[in-house]
Amino acid sequence: MLSIIGLITIVIIVALLISGKVSPIVGLVLVPVVGAFAAGFSFDEIGVFFTEGTTKVASVAIMFIFAILFFGIMQDVGLFDPLINRMIAISRGNVIAVAIATVIIAAIAHLDGSGASTFLITIPALLPLYKRLKMNPYLLLMLVGTAASIMNMVPWAGPLGRTASVLDLDVTELWKPLIPIQIIGLVLLVMIAVILGYREKRLIAKRAVAGEELEDEISEATIADAQVAAAVAEENDLLRPKLLWINALLAIAVIGVLVWGIIPAGFAFMIGVSIALPLNFPKVKDQMERIKVHAPGGIMMATIILAAGSFLGILNGTNMLTSIATDLVTVLPAFVAPYLHLIIGIFGVPFDLLLSTDAYYFALLPIIDQVALTFGIPSLSTAYAMIIGNIVGTFVSPLSPALWLALGLAGLEMGKHIRYSFMMMWGLSIVLLIIAVLLGVIVI
Question: Average pLDDT for residues 148-159, to the nearest whole number?
Fold first, then answer.
């Protein structure tokens, strides 16, 4: 009976998250409470489960708030603008170089872990260049989306924070083994960009109207046109070009401390924000304005993480997850169960089309982890299989709000984007899974 109630609870939450009828907070808080009541637990017991669950994820919520504030401030002051503009200029209209530059620019732009800001930076800046060179805009969206997805493995982005809260792990320690996977993924994506850029060059040549010659380079005026959107920020009063190197050193120091792990991640970003605000905005009024601008994003993610803590606290406290895993093992074929985490990872990108990020990590991951544990598979291995298998497809899913923003900015269609990008993203995720197994990141 406990397994049935637990499964019904999870299915209802997944259905609500997919349907978008309620916010993640509402579903993650109310449904488990009703499930716990149905299983015969009292209000006092549920309160204890809530306290235990939210206590475990509090540090992750704090990290999200201050990481989003920190990188938002870095974006405001123009820390990444010179490098992005330089990459656009260096490409100078060479189709293959533009494809490579797209990957690098998107990776840099996604350092803040925000898909929306990444697309706002990259799409307006690069789309005029793609149009001028008659390159397929769906190539632009695919390269930006895939690069951002690989960079989304940083601890201040959503997936790792959700995973850390589910498994009660330190998010920085969770990230460190994924750094080589990120580097390899970006190198592979650059190679893919070269191949697709070469293919695009051939397609452009075939489409060329008789008598029309495709120039290998474009004029300085055209380069300037392509940079218009990226350079609009130069008129922004928030830019601090004279403090560029100081801000760069601050960002490097914060990330370095994070990787080093000498203090908690949330504390590192808290210190970073406390230095960045007075450094760039001496007036208290301006400091508070920057916090007001970026706080909503941090608060939103923090509230979802805390709601997930409540959800997981209740499911763990009532032993629903353990019961589900125990019963599931008895019905799974013996040869499948030990590899369930890897099988789910292989189908991670297709799952992106069916499950929201919250449903994938908060509902599916706990069950798979419990099953895998019964066969001696460490929780970290299960987490890495599901993260690596799923995360590359983050921006091919119609359930991603940031992707709809990108489609609107580029004037493209969701269906065509999925047809153009899906197989490439899925293939890359499987290759990265294989590499992770070979490197020992994933145990089978």
Answer: 87
